[in-house]
Amino acid sequence: MTRKKVKLAYITNDSARKATFKKRKKGLMKKVSELSTLCGIEACAIICSPYDTQPEVWPSPLGVQRVLSQFQRLPEMEQCKKMVNQESFLRQRITKANEHLKKQRKDNREKEVTHAMFQCLTGKSLQNLNLMDLNDLGWMVDRNLKEISKRSDSLKNVTNSQMAAGPSGEHPSQRAEVPVFEVNNDNMHRQQWFMDLLTPQEPLGFGGSDEMMLPFVDNNQNPPWSNTFFP
Q1: In angstroms, rounded to a whole number, what is the distance separating the alpha carbons of residues 120 and 141?
Q2: Phi, psi of 125 (to 5 degrees)
Q3: If pLDDT is split at 50, 70 and 90, which confidence band does 27 have?
Q4: For residue range 162-186, what is the model confidence (pLDDT) as tens digits?
Q5: What is the phi-psi region of residue 123: left when phi exceeds 0, alpha when psi lies from -120 to 50, beta otherwise?
Q6: Could you write out the three-class secondary structure of the chain?
Q7: In principle, which of 12, 34, 78, 136 could form an S-S bond with 74, CB 3.0–4.6 Å?
Q8: Best CA proximity match to 34, nearest among 49, 45, 21, 47
Q9: Regarding beta strands 202-203 and 124-125, do their DSSP bridges make them parallel or antiparallel, or are they unpaired?
Q10: How many CA atoms, within 13 angstroms, populate the side-chain half-sphere of residue 102?
C-alpha cells in the first residue's frame, strides 16, 4: 500500500498539529543523528515550539555551541552560500517544476507532430495546418530523413565490409554483385517530397473532424509552443 501524499499546508486542528509536531520532531532528530554518524560530520539541531518551555537541542547545548562557533568563523559569503528560507526554497521548487513542464510540453508537441507526419504518409491533406504546424512538421520530416540516410550509410558500409572480406579463397571477381540501394536526401528532393504532401487530397483530421488540427493547438491564434522546440 502506497503512502498517502501529505498536503504541505498549516494544520488548523490543534490536536492534530501537536501530534504531527511530536512525530516529525522525533524523526528530524533521528535523521540529524544518522547524518552525523554515517558521514562523520558536525551537525546540530535547535527546535523551539509553543509546546515546550525550553528549546530542544541535539546533540547537547555544548555540541550546539561548538557547531555554531565553527559556522560563525566562516566568511559572510560562505555562510550565505547555501542558506535558504521558506521563500527561496519554494522558488527553487517552482523553477524546477516549470522546467519539467516545459520539457513535457516539448515531448507532447513532438509526439503530436510525429502522429501528423504518419497520417500524411497515408495520403491525408495538410491544408488545414497553420504555419507553425507546417514548420514543425517540416523539421520532423527533415530529421527523420537524416536518420534514414545515416542508417542507410551504416548498412552500406557493413555490406561493403562483408563483400571485401568474402569467403576464404574466393576471388573478388567470382563474387556476385550485391545491389546497394542509395537514398538521395539532398535538399531539392526533400523539399519536393514535402511539397507533394501539401497537394490537396483526403482531409487530415483528429477524432473524425473534417479539419486538420493538432491537439492542444489553437489554429486561430498563435500556438502555445514556439519555434524553440523545433529549430
Answers
A1: 11
A2: -90, 155
A3: very high
A4: 888 765 545 555 555 544 444 444 5
A5: left
A6: CCCCCCCCCCCCCHHHHHHHHHHHHHHHHHHHHHHHHHHCCCCCEEECCCCCCCCEEECCHHHHHHHHHHHHCCCHHHHHCCCCCHHHHHHHHHHHHHHHHHHHHHHHHHHHHHHHHHHHHCCEECCCCCHHHHHHHHHHHHHHHHHHHHHHHHHHHHHHHHHHHCCCCCCHHHCCCCCCCCCCCCHHHHHHHHHHHCCCCEECCCCCCCCCCCCCCCCCCCCCCCCCCCC
A7: 78
A8: 45
A9: parallel
A10: 9
Cα dist from 63 to 21, 48, 106, 173, 177, whole Å: 24, 17, 51, 87, 83
What is the sign, positive or negative, of the torsion defined by CA atoms of 17, 19, 21, 23? negative
Angle 86-121/131-165 helices, nearest 10 degrees?
70
pLDDT at 219: 45
Written as one letter, the residue type at 69 is S
